Amino acid sequence: MKFLIIMHINPAVLDALTDEEKAAIGEGHGRFMDAVKESGELITTQALVDPSQAAVVRVRDGQPVVTDGPFLEAKEFLGGFYFVDVEDKARAIELAAQIPDAAIEGLGVEVRQVMFADGLLEA
């Protein structure tokens, strides 16, 4: 079963962390990536730039209208994800609990099963 483990970022929470706490998060992600690579469960992982560097595209009257910045005003934004192939949802949740962000008050890690990929419904 494929799951997307999504990391939600709150800049105010991250800004309040010490340099040592920030370094620990990075090191924790490194250990996590090594472990899921070794287990063969990691498909891919990506980290995203800050939403201030995003572009929002809307088509109005058949013409694209592009604006800078995030789609919605929100205190949290999608910071990145791990895409994993695991036995079941329980294992995906177990992996999500190992991500350092999950232990930080004000941050969250979301687990969502993939239901459609490459034109095929997932079982």
Walkthrough of the structure:
The chain is of the alpha+beta class. The chain has a single domain, classed as Dimeric alpha+beta barrel (Alpha-Beta Plaits), CATH 3.30.70. It is built from three helices and eight strands; from the N terminus they run E-H-H-E-E-E-E-H-E-E-E. It has a four-stranded antiparallel β-sheet. Strands 3-4 form a two-stranded antiparallel ribbon. The protein has a two-stranded antiparallel sheet with strand order 7-8. Strand 3 and strand 4 (63-68) form a beta hairpin. The longest helix is centred in the first third of the chain and has 21 residues, at 19-39.
Tell me the number of structural domains.
Answer: 1
Number of helices, counting only DSSP H or I runs of 4 residues or more: 3
Q: What's the N-to-C terminus distance?
A: 7 Å
Output the radius of gyration.
Answer: 17 Å
Q: What is the name of the CATH architecture?
A: 2-Layer Sandwich
Question: Helix and strand string, N-terminal first?
Answer: EHHEEEEHEEE
Family: Belongs to the YciI family.
Domain YCII-related: 1-114
Protein name: YCII-related domain-containing protein
Organism: Actinoplanes octamycinicus
